[in-house]
Amino acid sequence: MTHFRHFIAIDWSGALGERQKGIAVALCESGDAAPRLLRPTAHAAWSRADVLDLLLGHLPQDTLVGLDLGISLPFADAGAFFPGWADSPPNARSLWALIDAICTDDPHLSAASFVDHVDLSAYFRRHGGREGPHFHRPGALHKRGRMRVTEEAQARAGCRPYSNFNLVGAAQVGKSSLTGMRLLHRLQGRVPVWPIDPLPASGSVVTEIYTTLAAVEAGRTAGRAKMTDHAALDAALETLGSRPTGGSGPIDDHSADALLTAAWLRVAAPREDLWQPAELTPELARTEGWTFGAR
User: What average pLDDT does the chain have?
Assistant: First the structure.
């Protein structure tokens, strides 16, 4: 059993600009009370800096925080994040520091300078048909780019993950992941990030989530993971043992994802098997990390 008493799910965004309609933050406590949306104090929409401030100074005690982004890049498939590049970092924390250093002049925790870097752009699929020569792993059986071990586990669960090196299309996750890694670097060890850091016996923890996994656990299929009305959301919450939100009518999918996943974290956190996936080795933990809930 884990010690967490509060559960926050954050639907993240890597879009340009200071404030993002795509960022949603939901909180629930132990028990069965419905999750609720949190709002930034002075604005209608969250900024990435607002989320960083929440994580550093305003978390309730013993909170499990799920961030819907990739906390690292593929490493195990090629023995490096950027195979063939002499300065490829050895672990996830070094990767975060590298991204933040290269993007030091990019506002709002954005990461354009990293993907446009003269050497590193060769590893990404970018807009305008610009696919770098190192985007695919040699011999790969699909065209979605290099994958982490945890993303292969997601695929076995019926999901369709995309590479964090992919920056193109509605399903791309690269931009959100790279901006999220800038945020993780700035936590500076003040909040542990599992499994990069060991799971502590007390206090708050940040981990990676994939909201589709929560939706599947709540009785929906991966293809129907997105919900845009309160009736569907409340039905999924009921499956997770949560009270309904009390809302009616439409809801944006970012808010629905955050609300449902906060409730899922509450029931998933006590499950020891989710903290000990069979494929998660110490080497993988410090390089690629893992998605909480993937098996």
Answer: 94
Task: Categorize the per-residue pLDDT at 1 as very low, low, confident or very high, splitting at 50, 70 and 90.
Answer: low
pLDDT in tens, 171-195: 678 999 999 999 999 998 899 999 9
Q: Can you give the C-alpha Rg of the chain in angstroms?
A: 18
Looking up tokens 């132990």 gives: 30
Amino acid at 294: A
Cα angle, residue 276 at apex, residues 160 and 263 outer, rounded to 5°: 60
The pLDDT of residue 96:
98
Helix H, strand E, coil C: the string for the chain is CCCCCEEEEEECCCCCCCEECCCEEEEEECCCCCCEEECCCCCCCEEHHHHHHHHHHCCCCCEEEEEECCCCCCCCCCCCCCCCCCCCCCCHHHHHHHHHHHCCCCHHHCCHHHHCCCCHHHHCEECCCEECCCCCCCCCCCCCCCCCHHHHHHHHCCCCCCCCCECCCCCCCHHHHHHHHHHHHHHCCCCCEECCCCCCCCCCEEEECCHHHHHHHCCCCHHHCCCCEHHHHHHHHHHCCCCCCCCCCECCHHHHHHHHHHHHHHHHCCCHHHHCCCCCCHHHHHHCCCECCCC
292, burial (CB in 10 Å: exposed 0-12, middle 13-18, buried 19+): buried
The yes-or-no verdict on residue 131 having pLDDT over 70 is yes
Q: pLDDT category, 141, cuts 50, 70, 90?
A: low
Mean pLDDT along residues 73-82: 96
